[in-house]
Amino acid sequence: MSADDPRDGDFRGMADDDENDSYTDDSDEERDFLKVKKKDKHKKDRGYKAFELSEEDDERSPAKSKKSKGLFRRGLAKTKEKEKEKESKTRKKEKDDGKAEKKEKEKVSKADKKEKDTKIEKKEKAEKKEKLRKKSAHQTVEVTDEIPVKGKAVFSVPLSVAVERSKYYDGIELPAIVRDCIDHIETNALHIEGVYRLSAVKSQVQQLRHQYDKGQPINLGDYEVHAVAGLLKQYLRELPEPVLTVQLLPKFEEAAVLPDDNAKIDAFKKLLLELPVCNYTLLSWIFVHMSHVIDKEHENKMSLQNVAIVLSPTMHLNHKVLLVLFKYNKVFFKDVIIKRAVKPLRWQSSRTSLELPPDVNVTLEDELLRQEAILAKLHQDMNMGIGDQETEEKLWEVQRIVTTLKRKIRQSKKQQTAEAAKDKIEEADEKVKEAKVTESKVKEAKVTESKITEPKVTGSKAKETRVKETKVNEP
Questions:
Q1: N or C: which end of the chain has fewer CB within 10 A?
Q2: What is the pTM of this model?
Q3: Nearest-angstrom CA–CA distance, 267 and 272
Q4: Half-sphere exposure (CA, 13 Å, Cβ side) for 292?
């Protein structure tokens, strides 16, 4: 056997152990026990030494080292893989448990949110019902949606388009926003200081703008006066074309510089007649309204200079043109009268009747014409594809108002005819009574006349006449 053989190492270990150990003074049983123990020790030592020798042999023989290392590494890799699998399984379980807990918590939170939302919705519905109950049946709302709705926007569109989309049906070619703002300021805010000069809250102005662009019903009384004035200024400022039009504006500027006042007035009159109807109407209403504002200068501090400072940038007009229009305002717009807009009726869902407002002098026939015009416009929008669900709802609402108005007009006509017939009968009865009275009076007069003209008879002649009268009267 060679010195490199690993088996030599085993024998050497056993020899060393035999030399070192001594078994003197021991009994046979103890010797047997120790022999067994030594065999176990030899096996252990042999195993460790064999492992150490195998590592040395591996260094010498690469083929053997590859096999031994490969087997050892495979065993370690398998154990590591098993440990990793166990760890991954435990982690997955923990994750699954965590996810389950989160899901349960989310379910509980969702249920709580749903309960809260339902409670809030119930409260809001109850509040709305109470508000509807408190509202009167005679309330009028404007029939005219933060993104402008297609076919409804009135800002940043030509004036003629805005008039067509939102005008009131009383023959005045103005957008509803202009008339609403002017009406509100004329009735409530001419005395307020700096009504057009002081700046408004931007959020309120933007909110009003979005409502007009969406065609929603608006109550300007819920907003500050300066917000209403700011809304009108913003509308005029955002018109894509000046009110005096691009073609005629240079001519107005030339006429404003003329030295002779009469020539200046004549030139302005001719140019005003060349304006479109809606442009002339807007210009005249704005200047008549601003003249009313200037008349209250001692209260609102809005002088001609302050009004010109406001109007020049908003209406894109030169100061000289503005001064001419203000100076000869009563000459250019003498026949212009600011009429309060009569808003079309809306059907009140809380009531079954439809009544005209008592504070406005409007007949049923006028309201019917207005509602029929609105109905025609809604049908046109639906046919053009502009309408949406809201316009369809409005269409049915207006149709219902038209039918009720027609029914009321028929009933009123029947009542009028019945009252007229009663009046005629009463007149005939009065005439008959008067005729009877006159006849009785005539008879009485004749009797009195006959008594006066007849001669007086005395004595035997009187007796004879009496006897004759009695005989005549007897049958």
A1: C
A2: 0.52
A3: 9
A4: 19
